[in-house]
Design brief:
By secondary structure, the chain is an alpha/beta fold. It folds into two domains: 156 residues, HAD superfamily/HAD-like (Rossmann fold, 3-Layer(aba) Sandwich); 116 residues, Hypothetical Protein, Haloacid Dehalogenase-like Hydrolase, Chain: A, domain 2 (2-Layer Sandwich). The protein has eleven helices and 14 strands. The strands form three sheets. A six-stranded mixed β-sheet has the order 8-7-6-9-11-10, with helices on one face. A five-stranded parallel β-sheet has the order 2-1-12-13-14. A three-stranded antiparallel β-sheet has the order 3-4-5, covered by helices on one side. β3 and β4 form a beta hairpin. α2 packs parallel to α11. The longest helix is centred in the middle third of the chain and has 15 residues. The chain is globular, with a radius of gyration of 19 Å.
Length: 295
């Protein structure tokens, strides 16, 4: 474990925790050791702030397993919600023009694309808010892969019609699911067309996501920190992908698993064991419990 900083465990009040590739195993499970250690941290009053590219629905099984409460960062920071109630603390929407361009690009190139649309405020009769909707234009292997990876089932529909709906204020995020080579072809096309008017990031080997400018996990974490009254020195951020770099810039301390991308490893204060080894658990055990949480 590389160490470029010293952590005083008594000063740490929260963990900003990425899920896929970091806290979750390669099979997208929350390992038993990791679950045990995170619960032990919670019992000590250390908040666990999930900071994920996943939707609320896609992250909920892990939050519920931990019974973590308070602000959580979803969609790479496009949405921050106070859980378990789901009160939205922050929401940044992608302009429909940019989303429409992505649909055209996906159709022209034959690349899979899907969009998350924000749920509407409440159901008829005051039965509570509608959940966010995921829509794709066709059911393919990518649709099934995403469902298997996140547990979220996409609706099938015409994305241009959904974007043209007068009640649609914008999109939470659009996502290309394709090869790294195609992602490298798509990214400059998007940047050339919209420049700083969009945020483009890779969140998985197959996922290239497009969101509103200014969106990032770091910005979402800052909102969560303000809500909890936390300063950077009271947080440790843990992540593995390029979308986690803003977390590292926002928190006082950072750690990346051995499976993280090279730029993420280079930016991290601590290099820890891989997600397959439940490196997050071992790292937190060493810091807070002298090698074992004792639970």
């Amino acid at each position: 474990m590389q160490n470029t900083k010293k952590i005083n465990p008594a000063c740490i009040k929260a963990l900003a925790l990425d899920l896929d590739g970091t806290a979750l195993t390669p099979e997208t499970r929350l390992g038993g050791r990791t679950l045990r250690v995170l619960k032990a941290c919670l019992s000590r009053g250390i908040a666990v702030i999930l900071c994920t590219g996943r939707s609320v629905e896609g992250a909920e099984p892990y939050r519920a397993a931990l019974d973590a409460r308070g602000p959580m960062v979803y969609f790479n920071g496009a949405k921050v919600a106070d859980m378990p109630g789901g009160t939205v603390l922050g929401l940044s929407l992608l302009d429909k023009e940019a989303a429409d361009f992505c649909v055209d690009l996906s159709r022209k190139m034959g690349v899979y694309f899907q969009i998350y649309f924000p749920g509407r405020p409440e159901l008829p009769g005051g039965l509570g808010p509608l959940p966010d909707r995921l829509i794709a234009e066709r059911r393919t292997g990518e649709t099934e892969m995403y469902r298997n990876h996140t547990g979220v089932e996409a609706e099938i529909g015409d994305l241009k019609e959904a974007l043209a709906d007068q009640l649609c204020p914008g999109c939470i995020k659009g996502m290309f699911i394709t090869t790294p080579a195609q992602q490298e072809f798509l990214r400059p096309l998007l940047v050339q067309q919209f420049g700083g008017k969009i945020y483009v990031t890779r969140t998985h080997v197959s996922f290239l996501e497009v969101m509103s400018p200014g969106v990032s996990k770091g910005r979402g974490l800052k909102l969560a920190m303000d809500h909890l009254g936390l300063s950077p020195g009271e947080l440790i951020a843990l992540g593995d992908e390029e979308n986690d770099l803003p977390l590292f810039e926002t928190a006082g301390f950072s750690a990346a698993p051995a499976n993280a991308k090279p730029p993420v490893l280079a930016a991290a204060d601590f290099r820890i064991g891989s997600n397959a080894e439940e490196g997050v658990a071992a790292f937190l055990e060493d810091i807070f419990f002298g090698g074992s949480p004792g639970t």
